[in-house]
Amino acid sequence: MNYGYEEEAVFIVTLQAPEDLKLGSDLAITANLFWLICKETCLPGEAALDLVLPVASKAEPSAEATAFAEARNRQARAAHPWVTTAYLEEEALVVVIEGEELAADFYLYVDSEGLVDPSAEQVRSTPAPNRAELRLALDAPFFENQPLGISGVLQSGNDSWEFNTEILDTPQLFARTAPKPVGFEQRLLAFGLPGILALAFLGGLILNIMPCVLPVLSLKVFSLLKHAGQTRSDALRHGLAYTAGVVLSFIALAGALFILRALGERIGWGFQLQSPGFVVVLSAVFFLFGLNLMGVFELGGRLVGADNKVARRKDVLGSFGMGVLAAVVGAPCMGPLVAGVSGLAVQANVATGLLTFGMMGLGLSSPFLVLSVFPKLVAFLPKPGLWMESFKQGMGFLLMAAVVFLALVVGRQGGVDGIFILLVVILLSSVAAWIFGRWGAAARSRRSQWVARLLALFLIGASLFYGVRSIKEAYLDYGNQETIADSSGQWGAWSSNRVDELLAEGRPVFVDFTATWCLICQVNKKVALRTDATESLFTKKGIVAMEADWTRYDSDITDALEEFGRSGVPLYLLYTPDGAVTVLPQSLTNGIVRDAVEKALP
């Protein structure tokens, strides 16, 4: 990367006039110039220019005086209004900017060459409302002769300031200036990495009771009942396989997230459900699992009476696959503690981020792992019996409910055309399941089984190929909605510029960062945000309500989430005209919303 000038540039150079200048004489000034003109390639140029000026007793403005005045106005101002410092973190320099009214973006032009890698992205984060951090990748010469400070020009928009700050060995200064930990989550974070890992584990554990994980968890409950009475080694094998599936999937998803972000994609945790193709495939998987539980077709019939080791190995692979499915569905579910710790993990270095998300996966899989380590605990579950068939079919209906919910997500992403495409995929998948169940059963001839399997696989493959390819076109055609449908007419679509305009007019703003696939978000809407009580409260206080819908990919929403240390939804913000921002909890009630509003706007 090179820094350069666009259009016309004026360089102000200070010259010292000779003491023996005589009035009426001429002064010759010579400039030897060298430059590069760059676009995709750079072309060199050079020139020697002369300028002759008369020596007079009084200075007269030249024809270029206006250009000089404009150039001086564009130069960096002497002092910025913030407190700054910096510290080293691995092979990066973290520049901390603290104070009121932080700018939306910062870029630091370092004045010494060879210290900072100019081609690397300067990653901005906002760990606290009045604090911003710039993470700068360093070049090798920095470590050969480490400077005590760093200087240059700090730019934000069209404004720039002279910048000079010291470099600390450790971020001790921030522990002194940061607010005292308040609440359980903040107290754990005060312990550094161990606290982050503890929060990640607890957040993953809580995910087990979230609605988005319930359909998959129901399958594991049925598995526990089905395998009741198995040996301890078999139970441990299942538990470890399920845990490996969950943890490795969390790490793989986090790795993909870090890779895509390194390539310039502005995405956050839960990015997989922003892909309509992925949602279509997941819907088909849930639908087929539901048909299987309802008895339309059976898997594993040939294993009856087969070698016990083979059957056991197949079951272990099934436990691993169930762990993968639990992770893929549960990862974007922002339960208590998950939103905050995932935001920290996304903005940390890659090793810390992968470790944090892996610990979150361990928390999600821990209940089943504990049952496998202590199989006697399974005795507290209901005894196997004929009732299990009804229970299994009931779990099938639960999975069908998950398909209905995913259809809503597809509708928000691709409109009516998207739902039609999903219905075609579901129809072809149901035909495939019926063929497999009718002619692929163990009682049929081997030839009939093979023909049924091949035909079923072909129909499923063809339906998914059609669905993934067609849903992308529907996604592009549908586009983002300009307004948010709401019966009260009170909610409007979010944009950062609109928020700034409303605050400049003296009007408070409430922003709901949400997504259709976020079930907590939908519950909060029903019980707290889209209620008569909240509508009356917002009207009374003159609050403008806005919704930032992250169902579809939106880099602006991703940036806004990261400014508040989040990598996913939900996030609820209350802006007041005096510049204060209140962050509400992830789980809302009418009372929580009312208390936050009355405290911010008495």
Walk me through the structure.
- The structure is a single chain.
- The strands form 3 sheets. This protein has a 7-stranded mixed beta sheet with strand order 5-8-9-3-4-7-6, with no helix packed on it.
- It contains 18 helices and 14 strands.
- The chain folds into 4 domains: 1-75, no CATH class; 83-177, Immunoglobulin-like (Sandwich), CATH 2.60.40; 185-478, no CATH class; 491-600, 3-Layer(aba) Sandwich (Glutaredoxin), CATH 3.40.30.10.
- It starts with 25 loop residues before the first strand and ends with a helix.
- It has 602 residues and is an alpha+beta fold.
- It is 50% helix and 16% strand.
- Residues 172-182 and 300-314 have low confidence and may be disordered.
- It has helices at 65-74, 140-144, 172-177, 183-189, 193-206, 214-226, 232-262, 276-294, 308-330, 338-347, 350-373, 387-439, 446-478, 496-504, 519-529, 532-541, 555-563, 590-600, and strands spanning 26-38, 42-54, 83-89, 92-98, 107-110, 123-128, 131-137, 149-156, 159-168, 491-493, 509-514, 544-549, 571-575, 581-584.
Q: Rg, please?
A: 31 Å
Residue share in helices?
Answer: 40-55%
* SSE class: alpha+beta
Count the helices. How many? Answer: 18
- Principal-axis shape equals elongated
